[in-house]
Specification:
Number of strands: 26
Oligomer: single chain
Shape: globular
CATH class of the largest domain: Alpha Beta
Helix content: 25-40%
CATH topology of the largest domain: Polyamine Oxidase, Chain A, domain 2
Structural class: alpha+beta
Strand content: 15-25%
């Protein structure tokens, strides 16, 4: 990464190296072929709210920020399968994440539910009728009629009461759902909960699983950042657009768009794969320390508080509608309390616990050997179930950490269902010890839902260190920090664990720390959260481009998911789920498509929300051509587009190909150069 200033005129400057900014920059470079992209990051590290601690727990990278992959139908899972990255399938316990799951995780792990006022610890499948009614009411949020949901003025608590959820379970809903949404059941709008549920349940199969990446999300961040020009320690002070230059560019764009929309001879429109661009870029980006950068487009991908607090000055100013949208949105703090233990003081099959009527509403269990069924790439490669650890030693054969870090994962060695035929403990790439050989045992699926709570004292594995992460959001997090020192917070959480599980967690405690995202100066919280004061179309307004030159991405723009927002001409929807990592990542993909379109590359978004390369004009009712798709997968994008348009008659079908198909193809992408000193003649934009 460069930390020096440059006099280069950039095609795009990306402000913010979090997941959305990195995703956008990566796709602009590797999918759309732009060659001059600069990423400016205010902090001393990249990744934004994706951050790891590599020293606290030997042998395990701990996620200090985003921790889970929610669902199995999203771009992060696609990348895991594409690159062969390992992940662990865990039980979904939180109601706000779609829990509780219907059955145990592949390693037999489950979720527990603590009813603090009664001192009761319940399994996810307990027959308590009140808990079952609460779970059912929360699950049914997704099925409320869309129009009725948008018109709903109730709080989540009022919705639950109307659905017949008993008073004794309202605290469970507050902990399991309200905490995830950054509030309480008294403050979360039922309408937003209904909208969230429709989005979240579109991200998973019927199993709706959750995962942790192995060894961490750091693999994802480093892959997205590969070969990008990133400058850290570069907080931005201002973004200025010279509208006199922009006017000429806008005229060029409108001129080309009018050609694209006509039914002229296809040969005459063949070479419109990039716009004519004058040599002087209209955008000037200035950092706090006075460095100046020039570009044709700017992508702003910063946390919501950076926009709300005016850290970046825009000239001309942002529209009043966009400012009002940002100011109406809430951004809640998130706190993690991470503790290390020398023995387990909770049930062996406990992946997580939701804690009603308690100081800490959620706790997540882990160890230096990992928790959950281990999966590599496209093949479900599991280590042994909790009940079978003694009889099935570590025999997973999953790649080692070195090969994983170096993306040395081409070998496809899936598991057979019979544990006797599992591969050995050696890494199939380099022959060294696999991750699983040092971190897990072999997994068989446990289906029993009626077994008693297992003994807490059994089979602590030699050399295993255990962790519990307390997670608390919003006002409760703020109050916790205001009223307690970090040492007192840890002591109170230890006492809560002792009370819930009836064993001496305090005696097994080694160390712990508290991380508050509000204390990160360039982030100031965890994520945007729903409130009644938020404008109905705030996410859409926040996502709209400024002067078709300054674009916006980030998790706060991921809420434009349905209804009128999805039908907006800018089509920012992308089915981006709010409050999840892949939702933020999708906004980067969507912004990259918008920027490519602004450069004149014919792009559209289908009703499914996926971006497509398009020919120079399109006829209704056309279908993709497999042959054309194959040629794009081979990477020769420009040649394919040119051949497509010269070889088809004016009334022939015009195929389109998903960007994801292109990303899976070869790396060869013919770059476009929209920043030459002189305007680029249309005849020279596509080379022979």
């Amino acid at each position: 990464m460069s930390t020096t200033s440059s006099s280069t005129n950039y095609e795009v400057i990306v402000i913010g190296a979090g997941i959305s900014g990195l995703r956008a920059a990566s796709e602009l470079k590797n999918v759309f072929g732009l060659t001059k992209i600069k990423v400016l990051e205010a902090r001393t590290k990249i990744g934004g709210r994706v951050q790891q601690d590599n020293t606290f727990l030997p042998g395990r990278q701990l996620e200090v920020g985003a921790e889970f992959i929610h669902g199995d139908i999203n771009p992060i899972v696609e990348l895991c399968e594409e690159h062969g990255w390992a992940r662990r399938h865990i039980f979904t316990w939180s109601h706000g994440d779609g829990g509780p799951a219907e059955g145990p995780a592949p390693d037999g792990g489950i979720g527990y539910y603590w009813i603090g006022k009664e001192g009761k610890l319940l399994r996810y499948d307990d027959e308590d009728p009140d808990m079952k009614r609460c779970n059912e009411a929360l699950w049914n949020l997704q099925y409320v009629d869309k129009d009725a949901a948008e018109a709903d003025t109730r709080t989540l608590k009022q919705y639950l009461q109307d659905e017949g959820v008993p008073e004794r379970m309202l605290g469970l809903a507050c902990a399991g759902y309200g905490n995830t949404a950054g509030g309480t059941s008294d403050t979360v709008p039922a309408s937003r909960a209904m909208r969230f549920e429709r989005a979240w349940h579109g991200d998973g199969s019927e199993l709706d699983p959750d995962f942790r990446m192995e060894p961490s999300f750091g693999v994802l961040i480093s892959t997205l950042a590969k070969d990008l020009d990133i400058e850290i320690n570069s907080p931005v002070k201002s973004v200025t657009v010279d509208t006199t230059l922009l006017d000429q560019q806008t005229q060029n764009m409108l001129k080309q768009q009018s050609i694209i929309n006509t039914n002229e001879d296809p040969v005459a429109t063949t070479k419109l794969s990039a716009p004519e661009v004058t040599g002087i870029p209209p955008c000037t980006v200035t950092t706090v320390d006075g460095r100046v950068y020039h570009s044709y487009r700017v992508l702003v991908s910063v946390p919501l508080p950076v926009l709300k607090d005016g850290d970046i000055t825009f000239n001309p100013p942002l529209s009043p509608e966009k400012v009002a949208a940002a100011q109406s949105m809430s951004f809640a703090n998130g706190v993690k309390i991470i503790m290390k233990f020398n023995r387990r003081a909770w049930p062996k099959n406990c992946h997580g616990v939701v804690c009603a009527d308690s100081l800490i509403p959620e706790m997540w269990m882990n160890s230096n050997k990992g928790v959950g069924g281990l999966i590599e790439g496209q093949n479900c490669r599991y280590a042994a179930s909790i009940d079978d650890e003694a009889s099935n030693p570590a025999t997973t054969g999953v790649i080692c950490a070195s090969c994983l870090a170096n993306n040395n994962t081409n070998t496809n060695t899936g598991y057979a269902s019979d544990t006797a035929s599992l591969p050995d403990t050696s890494c199939p790439k380099c022959g060294g010890p696999s991750i699983a050989a040092t971190s897990a045992s072999s997994v068989t699926t446990t289906t029993s839902t009626s077994a008693p709570v297992p003994s807490i004292e059994d089979d602590d594995e030699p050399g295993t260190l255990y962790t519990v992460t307390g997670f608390i959001m919003g006002v409760r997090a703020d109050n916790l920090l205001r009223e307690n020192s970090h040492e007192v917070i840890i002591a109170r959480m230890l006492s809560q664990i002792d009370t819930m599980f009836g064993k001496d967690a305090t005696g097994a405690y080694i160390d712990g720390f508290v991380h508050s995202w509000a204390e990160e100066p360039y982030i100031r919280g965890a994520y945007s959260t729903p409130t009644f004061r938020e404008l109905p179309d705030a996410s859409r307004r926040l996502a709209e481009p400024h002067l078709n030159t300054v674009f916006f991405a980030g998790e706060a723009t991921a809420g434009a998911i349905d209804g009128k927002q999805r039908d907006h001409p800018n089509h920012r929807a992308h089915y981006a789920s709010p409050i999840v990592l892949h939702g933020a990542m999708n906004t980067g993909s969507s912004a990259a498509c918008d920027i490519a379109r602004s450069f004149g590359l014919p792009i559209t978004c289908t009703d499914e929300g996926h971006a497509h390369f398009m020919p120079t004009y399109r006829h209704e009712g056309t279908q993709p051509s497999p042959t054309h798709a194959d040629s794009l997968v081979q990477g020769d994008i420009k040649k394919s587009i040119k051949n497509l348009n010269t070889n088809y008659s004016s009334n022939a079908p015009r195929p389109s190909t998903p960007c994801s198909a292109i990303r899976r193809g070869a790396a060869a992408v013919t770059p476009r150069n929209p920043i030459s000193a002189d305007p680029v003649p249309v005849s020279q934009i596509v080379s022979p």
